[in-house]
Write a structure and sequence with these properties.
With 597 residues, this protein is mainly alpha-helical. The protein is built from 25 helices and four strands. Helices cover 62% and strands 4% of the residues. The longest helix has 28 residues, at 402-429.
Amino acid sequence: MNFRQTGPPFSSRNTLLFLALIMLLATGLRLYKLDAHGIFLDEKFTLVCTQGVVQEGANQKDVFFTPGKAYFTPAEFWKPKSLADYNEAIIRSDISNSPAYTGLLALWIEIFGIGDYATRSLSVLFSLGVVVLTYLLAVRYTGSERVRLFSAALAATEPFFVAYAHVARSYSMTIFVSLLSTYLFLLILERRTAGKHPWGLYIGYGISYAFTILGHSLGAMVFVAHGLYLLFYVRDPKTYLALGLTWFIATVTLLLPWFTIGGGRYIFMTMAYQGQFYRNLAYTNPTGNGFGYILPATLPNVLRMALPVFADLFWLTNGLTLDGLGKRNAVTGLLAGLLALGMVWRYRRSVRVPGWVPAIVCVLLGGVLLVTTIKTGQQVVLAAVPLFGYVLYEAIKQYNKSAQRRFVVLMTMLLLTPILFLLLMAFKNDHTYGITQRYTSFSFPYALILLGMLLDQLLRMPRFLQATLGAVILIQGYYILLLNKQILDDKAPKYTQFSIPRIKNPYMTAAESIQQQYTPGDTVLYPAIRLKPADEIEKTYWPFSIKDAQMTNLYLPRDATYYQRMDTTQQDRIWLVKGKTGQRVLIFDFKGQTYRY
């Protein structure tokens, strides 16, 4: 056995066919059950903001809170909103978050409607764009057909991408525009090497830069990585000047207005408040607080929270957590993997490898199932991690051209910068709340490209390694398939935030029932839950929630004159009271928080 390349690369004649199949798979995963599960809390924030509505009625006092006004109608709810209404909605309902996505989704809704399938399809479109951009980025700078196809296939099946394509939130859009900015950044540097000033690319880069940050403020970390790359590798003053001018113009024209005049001026105040709030929970109520597992930011606690987040960035290590596998089992598996790596490393330069080496490697990887207490295939995957690390090391060695090496460095910087920033903020704020997959979403495409390089290199390794690690990849592929099924069935808590599957959107169901059964003179009664604000910021204009009424009205006709009012005597049911008989017809029963999500 030897370490020379074995097998030809993929035929370029079949590349488009492979890509078409990958896109077909990606599309199917993202469209399947797209509207099967109702909107959850964050999506509610997004939807009311797209219509200029503040949750709990801060800018609808004349609709819900006018003294002596017994009823309100959909026509009153849907009355025209001003720019100030949209600004206030984003400030109060979504902590000044994602104005670019909110505005784009508002336009999308005007064209395609506000149904769950329509609103989420925008995320699907951006998620498919991420697959295409991952392919384009890999093909341009690795020079390998296999790398680009492997990277695209990984992006197509990446559980995070599948999950957030089913969510009407900014993550898919922000990943797309941040990835586009990296692609344009590299194109600019390539043109500058030829002595050209690609003004069209500068404009596109500036817009993608602004849209990334206006999609999610943490997207700024992508451009920190770009800046560091410039400092390390670029020595052209004209490039500095042109890119600096691009950042400056985009900041002044697109970012500063939002962060000085618009709602963005409140985001830093809100972040400071939340930092104090979560710090208090970390020290007083770390587990039963309703926000998840929040710990003080000691080094062990930060590492404990960061390890699974980092592992989930890589398709091959998704789900490999200490909590899931057990510390002793994890240590045992990694030790077995290191021993296997030692065997491979010992004979890495040999023309022929003794036949007993593959046998020992297989025994070490498979044997972990005999000595660990949790019998799962992911124990074998964990044991193979050192070997995958070795293959990645060999892959990077293959990229011996200066431009290729720099590309690998940039991918690594883009992978690590968002994560390191989260860890830094955790120590600064003294709590671990922000260490989560959502906030590392900008890193995913670059992790997938590195994995594409790894898989490409694996096909150059000895056949026994190809067979052994190929089997491990199939095992992990099964768990990825299972995780994607759980996501589509709404049973994957770390991605869907729910362990019990949601039903179809209850507010849309209620609105359809009202339209079918309402006759002139009837009255719709909405439940009014008594609010329990935790502080002054959470206080509203009325001690009872009007959220159920607001969300249902989102799906009622804009010109309807249905009589509606709040019923403070109950908290769970929407009723239709027939005008002639006074009979109550049940429209929907939320059963407490069961169907409110």
